[in-house]
Model the fold of this input.
Amino acid sequence: MMNDIIADALTRIRNAAMRKLEVATLLHSNTVVGILEVLLKKEYIESYKVIEGEHHKNTIQVTLKYDDNERSVINEIKRVSTPGRRVYKSASEIKSFKNGYGTIIVSTNKGVIANDEAFASNVGGEVLCTVW
Done:
């Protein structure tokens, strides 16, 4: 039984990028879709689509993005908050990551958003993961 679907999704993306695969298949959850929406908006991935499965077992196909040298655009993607240790930050604490080159993905009462949007909206929340 898998407890942390977000960590599983991030690991699948990381492993597919290391193997230089074009597509990674993830398990579906609304939080994972929110994370992928932020990654798409910040141009870390090309696209994603939800695929309907039988017995309500949906999956998500993520098309990864590579630069001209065939290296993944995602240098590092890391889970911060885990089911056993939740990490919460205020809006002022999530202002910047990696001097603006990275992104902190935060789950707030306004949905799953990036750190710059959370800072602009003056909302904090649970830090799900970091990407750069």
Q: What stands out?
A: Residues 5-18 form the longest helix (14 residues). The mean pLDDT is 93. Strands lie at 23-27, 45-51, 59-64, 77-79, 88-89, 103-108, 111-114, 125-131. The two ends are 30 Å apart (CA to CA).
